[in-house]
Amino acid sequence: MYTALRLQRKLKTELRAGTAEITVVAPDPYMTYQPFLPEAAAGNISPRHVVVPLRRVLDKCRIVIGEADRIDHAHRTATVTTLASPEDGTGAIRLTYDELVIAPGSISRTLPVPGLADYAIGFKTVEEAIGLRNHVIEQMDIASSTRDPAVRDAALTFVVVGGGYAGVEALAELEDMARYTARYYHNIRPEDLKWILVEASDRILPEVGEEMGRYAIRELRSRNIDVRLETRLDSCENRIAVLSDGARFPTRTVVWTAGVKPAPLLAATDLPLNERGRIECTAQLRVAGTDHAWAGGDAAAVPDLTSREKGKECAPNAQHAVRQAKVLAENVAAAVRGGEPVEYRHSYAGSVASLGLHKGVAHVYGRKLKGYPAWFMHRAYHLSRVPTFNRKARVLAEWTLAGLFKREIVSLGSLEHPRAEFEIAAGGGPPGKGPAPQDT
């Protein structure tokens, strides 16, 4: 989205004259600002303000909502299955292009853990974030209503796997929200909630440095969160989380955030991939060994020209992706006009992470911050980065109102099955909801 947004500005003359066309193929009609997912899950931001509608911001582009099944760059064609494909029976469509920008991002990297596919939930989409919020509050409702101690214990036990940004921020924000929500239950105390963070390495949040990582662990443990380092999830079958250190936790909630891998689309192209499945790129963000193909973001293996370490690549994170988008647009525009592309070069500035309301850690330009200053920096940075003034204003307004009023503790799990009530009213009997994996 960032690349297309800048490209439609750079090629304004060509687009107006009809000598150029920009086509954007995406599976969803919006771009998700993923750093705000934890706050959306905690109810601090409305889910619709975490996403940016493509048709509004890319008004000079042709938007095609669908999945790219295959890219044949040798013949400059992309095979795309649209939402209409199963309806009209015509099958996938073939799009031709002159210049290709491929940036499908990444998906959750899973492992063959027994029960994982049946019971776990990821944390990469706004749907998962809101579904997880609804699920956590629903488990508190179950615990408040049941007379079975085993059911109550499992409902109030939450296991998060992965100590990176996604896992730590999701756990911290949800724990903050659940602890606040507990005050409105007559028979649930904050100390009844059991939160467990499982990390295979010997540290969490490696991007903020070892010292800030240790502080984050102390902060989480001070809130009665069980942080288990050098530990793996061996199984979650039958709603029992079995850890490599021998611990067993009956639980109805397993959140999987243990890394990402390149999108499957990359394997369906004739573009060169490295050993980790990412597209090999030059410093100009051109796909190595090809012409008229460009890549950026999580899916691209881009040389880090600012590193002294030979052969090091840019980390697959938002900090690089947003800046690569700018260079991608500049280089594609240059290619269209017969100019010379430029190299991507960005020195890593540091990282910020939220640990819940008014709590955070940061390591930016060599300076280390923690607590409220780090949390404030986290919010200020991401407010400056979320695209469009419209979204900035709405997010800021929501934060301001949240500071004046009480938190929202509403669960809208029924949104996931909007026809359920009508099916019962229509005489269809108990509807076959097909509950989400984490609720089975």
Features of the shown structure:
single chain; 440 residues; alpha/beta; FAD/NAD(P)-binding domain; 2 domains; 5-stranded parallel sheet; 4-stranded mixed sheet; 14 helices; 33% helix; 21% strand; oxidoreductase; FAD/NAD-bd_sf
Describe this structure in words.
- This protein is α/β, with parallel strands linked by helices and 440 residues long.
- It has two domains: 2-22 and 58-106 and 261-337, FAD/NAD(P)-binding domain (3-Layer(bba) Sandwich); 116-258 and 350-404, FAD/NAD(P)-binding domain.
- Helix content is 33%, strand content 21%.
- The protein is built from 14 helices and 23 strands.
- It has helices spanning 2-10, 12-17, 37-42, 54-57, 85-88, 116-119, 126-145, 149-155, 165-181, 210-222, 318-337, 372-385, 389-404, 420-425, and strands at residues 23-26, 30-32, 51-53, 62-72, 77-82, 93-96, 100-102, 106-108, 120-121, 157-161, 194-198, 225-228, 233-235, 240-243, 248-250, 253-256, 260-262, 279-280, 293-295, 300-301, 350-354, 360-364, 367-370.
- The strands form eight sheets. Strands 9-16-10-11-12 form a five-stranded parallel beta sheet. It has a four-stranded mixed beta sheet with strand order 1-4-5-6, with no helix packed on it. Strands 13-14-15 form a three-stranded antiparallel beta sheet.
- A hairpin with a 4-residue loop joins strand 4 and strand 5.
- The longest helix is centred in the first third of the chain and has 20 residues, at 126-145.
- The chain is globular, with a radius of gyration of 23 Å.
- The chain starts with a helix and ends in a 15-residue tail after the last helix.
- The model is unreliable at 433-440 (pLDDT under 50).
- This is NADH dehydrogenase-like protein.
- It is an enzyme of class 1 (oxidoreductase).
- Residues 14-325 form the FAD/NAD(P)-binding domain.
- Belongs to the NADH dehydrogenase family.
